[in-house]
Amino acid sequence: MARKFNEENERIKRRYLQFLREAKRSDMATVDKAADAILRFERSIGFKSFKRFHIEQAVSFKRQLSGERNARTGAALSKATVDSTLRMVKAFILWLAGQPGYKSRIAYADAEYFNLNAKDARIAHTARDTPGPTPEQCRHAFAQMPSATPLERRDKALFAFLMLTGARDGAVASMRLKHVDLVECCVYQDARDVKTKFAKTFTTWFFPVDDAYLNAFRDWVTYLRQEELFGPNDALFPKPRMGQKDGEFAALGLSRDLYSNAGKLRAVIKDAFTSSGLPAYGPHSFRKTLGGLTNEYCKTPEQFKAWSMNLGHENIATTLSAYCPVSPSRQGELIRGMA
User: Fold this and answer.
1) At what angle do helices 79-96 and 118-125 cross, to 10 degrees?
2) What is the number of other CB atoms lying within 10 angstroms of the CB of residue 144?
3) Distance CA 116, CA 276 (A)
4) pLDDT of residue 131
5) Which of 48, 87, 192, 226 is the most exposed place for a label (fewest CB within 10 A)?
6) Are 174 and 258 spatial neighbours (Cβ–Cβ below 8 Å)?
7) What percent of the chain clears pLDDT 90, i.e. is strictly above it?
8) What pLDDT digit, counting tens, does each position of 149-181 carry?
9) Does the domain made of 146-280 have the CATH classification 1.20.200.10?
């Protein structure tokens, strides 16, 4: 059965989403999440007009979210998911309170009823350390990866590239050969072409990791240029070229095209780890691995700063807080060791 909708609500939602895109400069992923959260709230009130909003609807919506379960896992929604959903609906209600036809019915203070209680909010905002693979685990998984076919060579080069750069998977999926400089051992993450976070342009120099990674990646780029005759604008990690083989649809080699998203690349990396008997680490976990190497390689504040810049961070505190966590027990060891 098709979902119900309210035409008046649809019009005001369209205006709000345009406000997010054009005035707040939110990316489409953020806009889509806001649209989903608002729709969730709208369902909870039976698609009544937003002009009939009252604070009991907010209280009821919070209660409903707290009792919902994840459709995929069956587990209760996490406090972080509940909190982010409520914050997006709260922002919408705040915006509505200033719009003609709504400001006489909705007070700015009404939006506060979408806040979680203090206890649940603390749980939702608590930073949790998600461990990444150790350098030894990475070497083991990398060594087990096959490289007999062009696609297998691509996958192994992808693993090596992530260890060399710590680049985000969305950026990697959109990179072309022209962004790589093997002479200077760096990659230019140009936001005009590469899907970097916050559309930031920066250069990443290859991290000082095992030479096996550099050799594998260098061989891959050389293969693309000299044997596949790829040009500067062709994909660094291309999609397969599909066609008929022995009466079946199969990969026939390499195309020159980029992937539209990083889903396939994430699957390649997770499979590389699980096939080696390790947890299913994703591409982003390499940033954790590289962050953990800062203490081994960085001995001066200037070196810490360079390492942080290489990961695309403007502030060194971002690198230290996100990728170099110190547990309370380790804090005690370090302080006692200074005596």
Assistant:
1) 110
2) 14
3) 42
4) 78
5) 192
6) yes
7) 71
8) 999 999 999 999 999 999 999 999 999 999 999
9) no
Element (H, E) at 29: helix 28-44
- Of all helices (H) and strands (E), which one includes residue 68? none
Which two three-digit tokens encode residue 121? 């909010």
Q: How far apart are CA 220 and CA 201, in angstroms?
A: 24
pLDDT in tens, 98-112: 999 999 999 999 999
Say which residue the tokens 């729709």 belong to: 39
| DSSP codes joined into one string, 240-308 | EEEEEETTEEEEEEE-SPPPSSSHHHHHHHHHHHHTTTS----TTHHHHHHHHTHHHH--SHHHHHHHH
Q: Give Cα separations from 214 to 50, 164, 169, 171 (angstroms).
A: 57, 7, 18, 19
Euclidean distance between CA atoms 201 and 216, whole angstroms = 26
- Tokens 């997006």 found at: 88
